[in-house]
């Protein structure tokens, strides 16, 4: 897939969008998980803070004091990561896990009855998640005594939980990315299928399998196909006009040329044969040009519906040539496939076969062979004579499509130029090579 194709660009844009979306999703999910874990941890600290509040008792005189806290292994191991600190007035107690370290909350305590979450340094420099619970305890006289409870846990455990979550999440995001990319690729293939249909139909237009693209396509590409069809309609109209103008011009020349031949005959009667011959030579050359242009004007350029049977055309042309004085002395050998059809106008094929077979007949010593067979998707027509062949220098010109040999060699150049034009109009190929003996001509046309 080339980087300049629409499919590649869409795939690249989709892949970038999917990766960005999944990356943002991973960040968002990790943040949500971190908040959830922290919320669960805060709820646990709140429960522990309420349990610590139960160690406040009053003596017989009604004075509140801090009783021994309940035994909990988490708070007995030094630097265990779980700590508490409670103060009642000036009396302060700390968990054994803090050892000789004291938590340093803000000087101003939370409002009585309120809780707040803090982030404080721990005994080993680590960050702690701290829940502060602030209460008021009244003594026997009714005087309020502030009770401040701090319960803490290390954030390291929370970070590890987040890291484990992200580690477990990444494989699933990778699988999801692969599935999304595959789905996006299928979406692109299905979405661009109409363009592939247009491309195939344009190819069919070029090969002559279709006359027009048509409008039986999705609505999004119908305007494009309609515009192309309109261009083709306009092209055909212009081609018809050009063909008619060429034919009219050629026909317009025929009458003056015929008049010149009459004048040449009068000059010959007046005893001026040299001048008459000169005029006739020019007129004959011009008539050949006119005949060639008339033939070219008749060549059909619409290959979509053109169809011809090489077997019928070859046999018909050979039958005519056998009746000529030269053709009656030639041994004609034909081997053609009756079921073979070529994508070319039947009149055009007849014109080309007539020129080639007549040329082979004039140069043959005594035999001409013609074959027509299918090779893959091509209709291959081969004509061979047993004559002297063609000089190598001239052969290279014959094999070059569109070269007009009639300008330097009288007799066979026009016919071969017409053959080249006809085969070219049918999107075929013609080749010439010496067969030792004779000349071998091959025409390759699209088969039906």
From TrEMBL:
UniProt-recorded Gene Ontology molecular function terms: kinase activity
Membrane-spanning parts: 12-33, 165-186
Record bears the keyword Endoplasmic reticulum: no
Keywords: Kinase, Membrane, Phosphoprotein, Transferase, Transmembrane, Transmembrane helix
CDD domains with a match to the protein in the record: HisKA
Enzyme class: transferase
InterPro entries from the UniProt entry: HATPase_C_sf, HATPase_dom, His_kinase_dom, HisK_dim/P_dom, HisK_dim/P_sf, Sig_transdc_His_kin-like_C, TCS_sensor_his_kinase
Boundaries of every Histidine kinase domain copy: 248-448
Protein name per its UniProtKB record: histidine kinase
């Amino acid at each position: 897939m080339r980087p300049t194709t629409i499919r590649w660009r869409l795939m690249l844009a989709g892949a970038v969008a999917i990766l960005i979306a999944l990356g943002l999703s991973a960040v968002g999910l990790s943040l949500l998980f971190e908040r959830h874990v922290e919320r669960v941890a805060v709820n646990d600290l709140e429960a522990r803070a309420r349990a610590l509040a139960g160690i406040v008792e009053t003596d017989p005189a009604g004075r509140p004091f801090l009783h021994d806290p309940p035994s909990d292994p988490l708070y007995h191991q030094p630097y265990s990561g779980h700590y508490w600190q409670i103060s009642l007035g000036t009396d302060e107690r700390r968990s054994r896990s803090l050892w000789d370290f004291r938590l340093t909350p803000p000087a101003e305590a939370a409002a009585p009855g309120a809780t707040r979450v803090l982030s404080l340094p721990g005994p080993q420099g680590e960050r702690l998640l701290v829940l502060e619970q602030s209460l008021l305890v009244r003594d026997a006289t009714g005087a309020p005594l502030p009770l401040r409870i701090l319960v803490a846990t290390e954030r390291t455990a929370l970070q590890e939980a987040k890291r484990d979550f992200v580690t477990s999440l990444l494989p699933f995001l990778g699988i999801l990315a692969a599935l999304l990319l595959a789905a996006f690729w299928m979406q692109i293939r299905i979405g661009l299928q109409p363009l592939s249909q247009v491309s195939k139909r344009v190819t069919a237009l070029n090969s002559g399998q279709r006359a027009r693209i048509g409008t039986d396509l999705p609505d999004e590409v119908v305007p494009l196909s309609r515009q192309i069809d309109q261009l083709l309609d306009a092209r055909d109209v212009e081609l018809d006009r050009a063909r008619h103008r060429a034919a009219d011009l050629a026909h317009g020349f025929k009458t003056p040329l015929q008049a010149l031949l009459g004048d040449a005959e009068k000059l010959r009667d007046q005893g001026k044969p040299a001048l008459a011959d000169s005029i006739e030579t020019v007129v004959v050359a011009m008539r050949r040009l006119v005949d060639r242009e008339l033939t070219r004007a008749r060549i059909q350029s619409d290959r979509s519906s053109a169809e011809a049977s090489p077997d019928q055309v070859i046999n018909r042309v050979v039958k005519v040539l056998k009746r000529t004085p030269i053709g009656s002395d030639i041994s004609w050998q034909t081997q053609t496939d009756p079921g073979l059809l070529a994508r070319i106008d039947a009149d055009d094929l007849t014109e080309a076969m007539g020129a080639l077979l007549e040329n082979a007949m004039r140069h043959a010593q005594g035999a001409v062979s013609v074959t027509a067979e299918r090779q893959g998707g091509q209709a291959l027509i081969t004509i061979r004579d047993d004559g002297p062949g063609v000089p190598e220098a001239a052969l290279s010109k014959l094999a070059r499509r569109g070269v007009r040999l009639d300008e330097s060699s009288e007799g066979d150049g026009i016919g071969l130029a017409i053959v080249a034009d006809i085969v070219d109009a049918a999107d075929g190929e013609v080749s010439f090579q010496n067969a030792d003996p004779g000349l071998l001509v091959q025409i390759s046309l699209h088969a039906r």
